[in-house]
């Protein structure tokens, strides 16, 4: 497969014909990446974990994760400048490495995305009952399973809505997503400003361990590495802008810029919220800050007067909604991309595009159902769900590594970047490509290992949860590779219904 073939969309290099609705503009592409990262969802959902584990200084993990993920994003920007196709991570890994590498990256990314959709949907429980007690539909919140059961119910309703929207077409999805992201960005900036206006302490709080990590194995460094999961959980999914490339106008120019803007905006605005929240918190020794029942939401409610705190909680709910929508959308494109290669069971059905809406309907429904099934686990086994959520992040980091790794090999061999990028005015890192690519690989491997390290503080007990990253990822990858070995590898190839007739 040629790496130097110049074309307008990159699809000819894969032998695919146009089958999706190419209607997304620059803001819609940017909004897709921002909503997947979702400043308000990620920061508000995991603040309690980071702060409760390592205190205020855990926020140094925010710029650390940004720098590492920026290196990955820059690599993805080069790839998007040449190949902005659906299911980008899968197709990039397939093109740069061996077919088994591409399939493994796609399988890990797909299963992780379904779990992520379920995890994001659970965030409604952290916000809706705060707005109105009537949203606590199951029990009054005091029962042993009230919180978990109600979270599953609210999450299932949300996923049913995102399924419907995605099934109705990309234009409706983009319109709703763009409007939601616009609201989220304005709300995030205003939250940062209002928190800054209410600071009660200086930045010195970030330069002390504040007693965290004392007496523990590894000291504060050990606690900090665990807490970095909170930041690692937020800054990924920027590849969504490229995964929607087949539905974007001028994708080779639009997608790379959207990727960069999405991760930069998330870092700056999200970082401002986190920093000013810690500086504005009434009492940093309040144990609720390290609990999901308090977390960042309690700081926002405490420092904002009158109904303003409720208004911003509503904005957080909107952010959770568009984040769920974007995660669902990205998972659909990945499913579609693998299915049209007959790389998934029931490939023909999963790759079918509705002629009226020009969108894959079957993957939308299938992913929605699977995510709701995963949600149900949370009722009786919340610790297992926490483990699954954590390893989903690891699987996405591994999938990214299966792109940046083969890309580095191509770069060292002199086979990357393509010759048409610079003359055509497309994004390329030029002489900085090699060091950035090396940094992306080292970062991806190091962060994946850090997140996977068996820690009871993260994964709990018994042993199969403590070693959950290895047990569950091994099981998920093992089941997938078994199907690949028995059936998949014999049948993988572009379906006739999606093959470019010009090839």
UniProtKB/TrEMBL annotation:
Name of one Pfam family that matches: AA_permease_2
InterPro entries, sorted: AA/rel_permease1 (IPR002293)
Principal subcellular localization: membrane
Keywords annotated in UniProt: Membrane, Transmembrane, Transmembrane helix, Transport
Top-level taxon of origin: Bacteria
Subcellular location: Membrane
Record bears the keyword Transmembrane: yes
Signal peptide: none
Membrane association type: Multi-pass membrane protein
TM region(s), chain numbering: 27-51, 57-79, 100-127, 147-169, 181-199, 219-238, 259-282, 302-327, 361-379, 385-403, 432-453, 465-486
PANTHER family given in the database record: AMINO-ACID PERMEASE BAT1, OS04G0435100 PROTEIN
Descriptive protein name: Amino acid permease
Organism: Rhodococcus navarretei
